[in-house]
Structures are given as C-alpha cells and as structure tokens.
Amino acid sequence: MRYLLLAIGWLSVALGVVGIFLPVLPTTPFLLLAAACFARSSPRFHHWLIHHRHLGPWIRDYLGGQGIPLRGKVWAIGLMWTSILFSCYLVPLFWARAFMLASAVGVSLYILRQKTLRTPSR
Predict the structure, then answer these.
(1) Is the pLDDT of residue 122 over 60?
(2) Are 9 and 45 in contact (CB under 8 A)?
(3) 80, 107 Cβ separation under 8 angstroms
(4) What global pTM score does this model have?
(5) C-alpha torsion 5→22→108→82, nearest 10
(6) Residue 119: what pLDDT?
(7) Distance CA 89, CA 122 (A)
C-alpha cells in the first residue's frame, strides 16, 4: 500500500506542476492529493512538499484554513463536471450515471463550502 500511495503522490505532484503552466489542469487538488498520499506513506516527502518554496504555499493555504484559490475552485469544479458529463454520455447504465452525478454534486458542494482564498500567497 505504501508504494501505491507513493506512486499516486508523485503522479499528483507531476500533474500539479504541469497545472501551474497548463490552464487545463488544476494545481491545488493534485497537490492536496499528493500531500495526503505522502502523509500516509512518507514523512520525508510530505515534509519536502509542504515546505517546498513554490509548491508548499498551495498546500499550506488550504491546511492552514486560509482556503482554496478561486481559480482552483473554478477549474476543479469545471473539469470535474466536464469529465462526469462525458462519462455519463459514454456509460449507458442508469445506476452508474446516478452514482457519478451524485459524487459530482457531493464534491462540488464540498469545494464550494471551502473558504475562498482571494489573494494567493504565491
């Protein structure tokens, strides 16, 4: 399990870094996922990520209760709904569509209820 979490963590770091330069990918959710994976698999990598000069502020803002940047919220919700609706188009099973839509509503509500960081500390 440790190696799986490390792999997911590093993949998330890579996608988060790409998201800094590519507006299609949201940075904050990937870095938060990486931090969560590293917290459970490698204290060394978790410490490295949280204290990283460029990546750390995204995570510290959220974990410190300051919130998620508005841009991160918009991209996370927008991309999630785009992929969910496309998946619903492809999947003919009603129960699968219902599960995907219910999950998307739940995640959207969670993201929207989080405090919005107006001026990122980057």
Answers:
(1) no
(2) yes
(3) yes
(4) 0.61
(5) -110
(6) 66
(7) 38
Which residues lie across from 68 on neighbouring strands? Answer: 116
* Residue 56 CB burial class (10 angstroms; 0-12, 13-18, ≥19): middle
Radius of gyration of the chain (CA): 15
Delimit the domains of the chain by residue range.
2-117
Per residue in 56-106, pLDDT (tens digit) is 887 887 788 888 878 878 887 888 898 889 889 999 999 999 998 998 898
For position 45, what pLDDT does the model report? 94
Question: How many residues does this entry show for the chain?
Answer: 122
